[in-house]
Here is the input.
Amino acid sequence: MGNTQQDGNALLSVNKLGFAVQGKTILDNVSLELSRKEILTIIGPNGAGKSTLVKLVLGLLAPTSGNINRQNKISIGYVPQRLSLDSTLPMKVSRFLSLAQVDKAACYEALDFLHIRHLAGQQIHKLSGGELQRVLLARAIARKPDLLVLDEPLQGVDVNGQIELYRLIASMRDHLDCAILMVSHDLHLVMAQTDSVICLNQHVCCHGQPESVSQHPEYLKLFGQQAVDEIAVYQHHHDHHHNLHGEAVNCDEGCNHG
Amino acid sequence: MANFLLYALAVGIGIALIAGPLGAFAVWRRMSYFGDTLAHSALIGVALGLFLEINITLAIVISCGLIAVLLVLMEKKNSLSTDTLLGVLSHGSLALGLVCVSLYSDTRVNLYGYLFGDFLTVTLQEVIVIYIAIAAIAIVLIALWKPLLMLAVDEGLAFVEGHNVTRLKIILMLMMACLIALAMKIVGVMLITALLIIPAATARRFSTSPEAMAVIASCIGVVSVSLGLYGSYLWDIPAGPSVVLGALGIFCVGAVAPQKA
Here is the structure.
């Protein structure tokens, strides 16, 4: 389980990670590395295990196989897919941020960075979806994390807002000198802002630069048809072919997608 | 005013004060079913106390505490995610407790008192014990307020930010277990959750911060206890249900008021 074999720059390295619930495989043989100032985006269809991978990386779930190495003492900023805060809990945005164990100045700096200082006095449960996402982002960056983990950070944000927010997220990397691990459902929106992309469907379908991934037959199989035909649900028929390979990660050739 | 009324009032006010913040947590974390399960299992504690011939309140604290830890650990294993299973456990433990206690059905056992409270038989010694316990719970609550609040906001976030979520959950449950063991004397196992939930639910309408909600819930609890006891004295009705009715009355009046936040 030592970190010996990996290069010292990796902030986070995930090796041959597997996760199963009651015999049902959610993730199989997933490996990835993330170094400081790198932005890695995970894309994949519903049920691909994206959120599970995020939870494993954060330590919220324990892997069934494989291991995760985090550089010692890195601090993590996390934007969950949704906040479990009950509407019976009255709390102002400013209070919510101060619970992150950071000082007031850092809170307001983060709010300013996302242009939401005016929300500081609002109740959390009164925020719109997009506002809440920004508040969650502000809270995560107020902690000045080494690693920022964003699970579908732009739910409930309209397309223009998404483009703007992705730019902001990309600029956080320089601002905070941190690595960013992000889950998204739309490669085209994040393409300009991410360094590398992992296309996930229980296993790593393809991995690389956003341009190469967007041309990748595996990616097109997963998303291209969907985009063209505007079919919301796309069924992935190729799992078992990959699994036969044992380490079916790189699908450049050899995979029988028939 | 007779001594027994003073003692009852003192105990009731103390319980209501601490039930305010704990009830708020029960509401925020949607734990009312957990509370029921804990309360019902208190009856097993009564049987245990009779069987082992130890102090009944202590036996209740032990049995509720064990159940609380068990619930947290089972929840962690994800096998306890449904209302259904909690319902099974809750009423299963109630039935088991009833049967066990009835096996000891000599004159010492006042089953009705355990189920619906035995407010007016409180002794000075009990008042002192209850206040010591309340002080202990209050100290833990104040010391762990921020982490507990974070737990109520989002468990995942709390974990990622370095809080020991499992330990916090167990501590919160143990505090509830203690409160239930203490409050049993007043409202009994059937109505304890009401004393936790109703004041907190009423306070929600008038609060803009978690602390305000906890304090207002405490105040509403104190008023409910006073009203309930007075009503009980005035019309000779059972004190426990009378207190819960007092809380319910305030809830109904409050429901008309506009929500603050």
In short: Residues 165-204 of chain B form the longest helix (40 residues). The mean pLDDT of chain B is 86. Chain B touches chain A through 26 residues (CB under 8 Å). Chain B has eleven helices and no strands.
